[in-house]
Design goal:
The complex is a heterodimer of chains A (329) and B (312).
Chain A (H helix, E strand, L loop, with lengths): L3 E12 L2 E13 L4 E5 L6 H8 L7 E4 L2 E4 L2 E2 L5 H10 L1 E4 L3 H4 L6 H12 L4 H14 L5 H5 L8 H13 L5 E5 L7 H18 L2 E6 L2 H7 L2 E6 L2 E7 H6 L4 H8 L40 H5 L4 E3 L5 E3 L14
Parallel strand pairs in A: 3-9, 3-10, 7-8, 8-9
Antiparallel strand pairs in A: 1-2, 1-4, 1-5, 5-6, 10-11, 11-13, 12-13
Chain B lengths: L1 E4 L2 E5 L2 E6 L2 E4 L5 E5 L6 H8 L11 E2 L2 E2 L9 H6 E4 L13 H11 L6 H14 L16 H13 L5 E5 L7 H18 L2 E6 L2 H7 L2 E6 L2 E7 H6 L4 H9 L40 H4 L4 E5 L2 E4 L1 H4 L1
Parallel strand pairs in B: 5-10, 5-11, 8-9, 9-10
Antiparallel strand pairs in B: 1-4, 2-3, 6-7, 11-12, 12-14, 13-14
Classes of the chains: A alpha/beta (329), B alpha/beta (312).
């Protein structure tokens, strides 16, 4: 049984001026011990997808799906109490900016032991011992003094390690990392990514990594979802996405980053235009306005999903039998 | 265009924060020179000191042979026309209370370059179209635009006085990937057509490799290695440069190699110890590294490194 099953997920926000359709029919699964990357730019819906899947969206969000099953249980039907047990207990999250995710008024020790006492019912000394072990696991030296310190006394990289320590505190089955290294320097990013990979190996947790950085995705994730305008354009193994991409947006993304192969110096090919306004997403394929291969059908109808293999799927009208062939730039 | 820039120190309490500590380089006309490094290395401070947003504590900034480091106020005005800056944060660098039209023409008005309203409007149109935006954007306000568009407005503003030299301080790091490519291509195209010279300050090594002709790697306020771009990326020597490049994840799942992972954090530039700035994280250090700061030695072909190990 997959650890996470999401089928036809929708998430909308009702705000004063209208409804923001952030997620519009997203489906994917995740097995135990697997690493999945979700890549997309602003407004793609990647963060909202994970927040909706874990029941973390605020009340003014409307979430609907055919299925959202975590470990076989329906997340969308969980009570507040059940969700609280889920968060921290079975699912750990690491957010982008550790300074806003850590409470500046409580010591690190306090924040680390909180989930342990809440979810695992550990006594205070037991929780402290476990907290020290977590700091050790995340390579934070001098745990005793660190436990008494406050977030502002830690550097960015250290704070992110603390976030990771908190996320894995209760040995969750799933860790979701949302842009965990975007705010960090590249050498610190390398440390954090190595730590995440190491922990994943040791604890056999599943990891979902949300990022816009294709390098990070390639180094960390076995499977990838490419999102745009609230839908999944393409999903596949890392190899399939990087070496046999089939969606024009994926092509566009890969062509717009510098890639230095031996002796080659390509011109960057940006995707013209800007991401769509999710208050009024275009009918049809959300990428159509920026797509070089746009056809009339693209403006009117969303593309159906084509299954290319067990692992590889793409939603694009170019997959239709009558569409022009061999168009990859 | 030559910029030997000396030391720049900030004083806090009774300690010294050496943001830029003896930095020396020259930027060739019409080319792009990149300053790379991580947080706290001093690259942004160096960039701002060069356009005299700060006054250097010591050293010279030779702009076409004239030293602007010690000039004050009005004396800088003629130079300000020729040197401009594009800032990192497209949300903070545009005055939210000014229209786009006013924003892009403000520098030239300050310089006394527009003689009539009509001329100003004409120039605003020209600038905005140059960066791929439209005329009717001129009467709008910054908040009505996306990050990428705001960055284009910032670029249009920088072009306002027809400068020769532009410092680009992390101009794309706040933008989405596909928009980054748009902006970089535009910067390159402008360099070609207007003969601009850029100082490109960034931590994004892939983009730096793509856009620059020469690179200087900074660490704790000092240049540890400097070379023409291809030479640096193919034959890097300094342990920090090697670790830095090794840390950049490659966007290809089939080309994942072992990374050198540096331990610890970047040390603070406040009251730094003598000796090599990289000592605390260096795996190949020698006793001499503790006491004496390494000098930049010439390896030929414009490649210089500051490392005692290499000096041997």
């Amino acid at each position: 049984m997959p650890l996470l099953e999401v089928e036809n997920l929708f998430a909308e926000f009702h705000i004063g001026v209208g409804t923001v359709q952030a997620v519009r029919g997203v489906s994917f699964t995740l097995d135990e011990g697997e690493s999945l990357g979700i890549v997309g730019e602003s407004g793609s819906g990647k963060s909202v997808t994970m927040l909706a899947t874990t029941g973390l969206l605020p009340d003014y969000a409307e979430v609907a799906a055919d299925k959202v099953l975590f470990d076989g249980r329906d997340v969308l039907k969980m009570t507040g109490k059940e969700l609280r047990r889920l968060h921290g207990g079975e699912i750990g999250m690491v957010f982008q900016d550790p300074m806003t995710s850590l409470n500046p008024l409580y010591t690190i020790g306090n924040q680390l032991t909180e989930p342990l006492r809440l979810h695992k019912n550990l006594s205070r000394p037991e929780a402290r011992a476990r907290a020290k072990e977590l700091l050790r696991l995340t390579n934070i030296p001098a745990p005793n003094s660190r436990l008494k310190q406050y977030p502002h006394e830690f550097s960015g990289g250290m704070r992110q390690r603390v976030m990771i320590a908190m996320a894995i505190a209760c040995n969750p089955k799933l860790v979701i990392a949302d842009e965990p290294t975007t705010a960090l320097d590249v050498t610190i990013q390398a440390q954090i990514l190595e730590l995440l990979a190491d922990l994943k190996r040791k604890l056999n947790t599943s990891v979902i990594m949300i990022t816009h950085d294709l390098g990070v995705i390639a180094s960390m994730c076995a499977r990838i979802l490419v999102m745009y305008g609230g839908i999944v354009c393409e999903q596949g193994t890392a190899h399939e996405i990087f070496h046999d991409p089939r969606h024009p947006y994926t092509w566009g993304l890969l062509n717009s980053i510098p890639r230095h192969l031996e002796g080659e110096r390509r011109k960057l090919e940006p995707i013209p235009g800007t991401p769509p306004d999710m208050l009024q997403p275009p009918p049809g394929c959300p990428f159509a306005p920026r797509c070089r291969h746009r056809m009339p059908v693209c403006d009117r109808f969303e593309a159906p999903e084509t299954v290319l293999s067990d692992t590889h799927r793409v939603s694009c009208h170019l997959m239709h039998a009558n569409a022009p062939k061999g168009v990859r730039p | 265009m030559h910029f030997p820039v000396g030391g720049k120190l900030f004083f806090g309490r009774r300690r010294t924060l050496k943001a830029v500590d003896g930095v020396d380089f020259a930027v060739e006309r019409g080319k792009t020179f990149a300053l790379v490094g991580e947080s706290g290395c001093g690259k942004t401070t160096a960039g701002r000191a060069i356009v005299r947003l700060y006054k250097p504590t010591a050293g010279e900034i030779l702009f076409e042979g004239a030293d602007i480091a010690k000039l004050e106020g009005d004396q800088l005005l003629p130079y300000r026309r020729r040197m401009q800056m594009i800032f990192q944060d497209p949300y903070a660098s545009l005055n939210p209370r000014m229209t786009v039209g006013s924003i892009v023409t403000e520098p030239m008005c300050v310089q006394g370059l527009c003689s009539s309203d009509r001329e100003r409007i004409e120039r605003a149109r020209e600038l905005i179209e140059r960066v791929g935006l439209k005329d009717d954007h001129l009467s709008r306000y910054p908040h009505e635009f996306s990050g990428g568009q705001r960055q284009r407005i910032g670029i249009a503003r920088a072009l306002s006085t027809n400068p020769d030299f532009i410092v680009c301080d992390e101009p794309i790091s706040a933008l989405d990937v596909s928009i980054q490519a748009q902006v970089v291509n535009m910067l390159e195209e402008l360099q070609q057509s207007l003969g601009l010279t850029y100082l490109f300050v960034s931590h994004d090594l892939s983009m730096v490799r793509h856009i620059s002709h020469e690179v200087a790697v900074m660490y704790l306020g000092q240049i540890v290695e400097i070379a023409p771009t291809d030479e640096l990326f193919k034959h890097m020597q300094h342990p920090y440069t090697v670790a830095l490049l090794s840390a950049v994840p490659i966007p290809d799942p089939d080309r994942q190699g072992a990374h050198i992972v540096l331990e610890g954090d970047v040390p603070t530039p406040i009251d730094p110890p003598p000796g090599c700035p990289f000592l605390s994280r260096c795996r190949v250090s020698m006793p001499v590294c503790k006491g004496r700061r390494p000098e930049l030695i010439d390896l030929g072909g414009g490649h210089r490194v500051a490392c005692h190990r290499i000096a041997k």
